[in-house]
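Input/output pair, single chain:
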Amino acid sequence: MTASGVPGPASPESDPSPDPVPRACARRILVRSSAVLVFLIVLAVVAVIGLYRTLPADDLDVVEAGLLTVDPGAVGRHTFGDHVVVVEGGEEPSVRVEDEDRVVWSAPVGTSFVTAGRGVVDWTAHRGYFWPSVDLDERFADQEVTAVRVRRGQVVLTGTLAADEQTVAYQATFGERRGGVRLDLAATDDPDGGVTSLGLVSGRTAGAGVHGLGSSSPISTSTAPWFRSWTASRASGVESSS
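Output:
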């Protein structure tokens, strides 16, 4: 302090200098926290990968779609409820389902929309989910629609599926469910027995999203295999149940 009582400049010895100890501790805490966070993230990723590797895998033997033929007697528009099954023959046979303003479901033109297989179908269960294992000896890829009948608000298509010189009879039943369309497939006459799976082939508009058939699966029973699915007519995609 000066003689006049006014504080003067502090001497260099009196300047407070920053304490390096708290800064070093903060850096160590930050480094350790970052290391723990990285470790936890790596541990979580490893746990997820380990869990994923324990899950079963699908082992599918898919029947590629074959040719579709339609008997002239089956051609026409067949109404059930608010929907119509349109069966067309000739050189470009096709089957589709329409409602008032659009196509609800369709099969690729000239291509079978029902297939069948004969072989072994097993299922692996894990925490309430199921994975199929399919090994087919014979594939029924070519389809013929021979007749259509309307009964009790349903449209039933019947015909045969062919594999080389063998045939299996089937029926496809279209009905309404919850404002949508339900399709039941069944192998109705299998002289040699052993048809283990049925498949549904669906068309898709170019550029449209791919919608899976959810829980619908080929199911083998002691009588006839069946396959049940339904497509919602008011939604943009394909939904299903089994």
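Residues 107 and 202 are 5 Å apart (CA to CA). The helical segments are 20-54.
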